[in-house]
């Protein structure tokens, strides 16, 4: 069970734009930054209309209308930046059109390079980054992005050189953010729209993930919080679709109230809300939506309403049975967390169950954590897990470590690990780039 550090921030949908600068090759590059800023003002009404539209209406219709209103390259540039958080394919297409319209505008060049990078077109992206970097040599983000691109096209020395130029000791926060710019989550708005579509078709159980998503919106890898525009609209929808005595509605509303109390520091009323809602405390039922139950239990443990050890002792089997009944990987994860707290570690059979039958990478990571010193690099189960989770940086780290301990060449495995770490910062518990820095330093010495 993961504890989220929630950072409050203003919730503004698609109205703020990052300010990128510009460049190109062989010819004089220009920066039409003033025209972009002017277009932001001219295009303000359309953007505002879009922001309102996606809260209340079908996302696809809203997107089509926004694209239709983008009748010049500057509006397309701004529209593409908005749509990356919603539809990466349309975003890439718009930035391609903008770049082809004016391949000497450094703003267009950089944004198209970023789009190419995001879509895995590393060679094409690297050429545009190099062009941009000639004009803006102090923008350390391009060194980070070039390091990633060159790694993925087997230009390892160039990757290392650019990583060194990024100067991690001085720029680690900027490096973290640069990586997030490429690989941050892009599916939340679409997921919300899909859940609302399911609800309109009568699948009311989708209200659980919908309201949970709105309340635990990922702004970046380090910050979560309420997406209030969506939350207010979707709460009204739940109240419209579900009878006020509906038990699921009561649970969801209690959860949202408890989260508000937690955020405001008024934790003394949480116990009363849980008691009145007949969930969790005093051996009352556990909600069957795992993410919500996990968060409520975290709140109970943090505020001393429940003891982890006692809860595991009294209700651990109930949790495990519920996980198996619902096939909810988050409920199984709660059980594993409590087992580790009470017994010192998760039992191997629980981890094995989690990654083989519940299809959850977290359990594979846990399973191999305590086995790295005893398994071989060609371990059958490890290879099976890598086949199942080929994008997992942690599993590649396990294989690389085992290989190194056996005195075998590790360079190629290290490269595969770094490729995946660049995309997720997944082996660092805080999602920072310190582990990536360590791997890049090791790669420099591994010949």
Task: Please explain how this structure is put together.
This protein is mainly α and 447 residues long. Among the domains are: 33-183, Alpha Horseshoe (Serine Threonine Protein Phosphatase 5, Tetratricopeptide repeat), CATH 1.25.40; 375-447. The protein is built from 24 helices and two strands. The chain has a two-stranded antiparallel ribbon with strand order 1-2. Strand 1 (217-220) and strand 2 (223-225) form a beta hairpin. Mean pLDDT is 93; it is low at 1-25.
Characterize the main sheet: 2 strands, antiparallel
Query: What are the low-pLDDT stretches, counting only 5+ consecutive residues below 50?
Result: 1-25
Based on DSSP secondary structure assignment, what is the total number of beta strands? 2
The overall pLDDT average reads 93
Classified by CATH, the class of the domain at 33-183 is: Mainly Alpha
- Overall CATH architecture of the domain at 33-183: Alpha Horseshoe
Distance between the termini: 40 Å
| SS class | mainly alpha
Q: Could you spell the SSE succession in H and E letters?
A: HHHHHHHHHHHHEEHHHHHHHHHHHH
Estimate what percentage of residues fall within beta strands: under 5%
Annotated CATH homologous superfamily of the domain at 33-183: Tetratricopeptide repeat domain
Please tell me how large the radius of gyration is.
24 Å
**How many H/I helical runs?**
24
Summarize the structure.
By secondary structure, the protein is mostly helical.
Write the layout of secondary structure elements.
Layout: H1 33-42, H2 44-56, H3 59-69, H4 73-83, H5 88-101, H6 106-118, H7 122-135, H8 140-152, H9 156-166, H10 168-183, H11 188-200, H12 207-215, E1 217-220, E2 223-225, H13 228-241, H14 247-264, H15 270-276, H16 290-302, H17 308-326, H18 329-343, H19 348-356, H20 361-369, H21 380-388, H22 393-405, H23 411-424, H24 434-445
Antiparallel strand pairs: 1-2
Helix pairs in contact: 1-4, 2-3, 3-4, 4-5, 5-6, 6-7, 7-8, 8-9, 8-10, 9-10, 11-12, 12-13, 12-14, 16-18, 17-18, 19-20, 22-23, 23-24
